[in-house]
Specification:
Elements (H helix, E strand, L loop, with lengths): L1 H13 L5 E13 L2 E13 L4 E13 L3 E10 L2 E4 L2 E14 L3 E15 L5 E11 L2 E16 L2
Amino acid sequence: MKRLLVLAFLALCNVPARAQVMMAAQGDVTMNPGGSSLDVGGHVSWRTPSHLGLDGAIAVSLFGDGRYDFADGDISIDAIPLFSRITLAPRAGLSSVIINDDHALNGMNAAIALRRRRSNGDFFRVDAIYRRVGGYGLGTIAVGIEFKLGGRE
């Protein structure tokens, strides 16, 4: 695992001038120990030409059983082509969940994003996320639009 992190770090640091920053606005449904919640959130990705990347995501529950705030930090790969203009982007990393603005649970997550390039260069994005925090499992399905913030192609 340490070797993988070192390789990912070196790959990310090797090409910062050609890196690309993407952002997504998403709505999602989360199944949590208390039931379910509807959430809104955002996702920021820093991707390199080698297709390794760093991802950060946050979400806040609006409706549901309890109030949940989510934060994820991941290492990702986003270059697995499936069909025309559709790619698969797996990622894994660390998660934190704050419940009812009272206490936080920390753990790990694994996720898969399906991204379909639209004609204007943006992506339609669907994420399936599994978080294991504080002995609990939380599943999330998120849907949104991802767009380029800066950097070069």
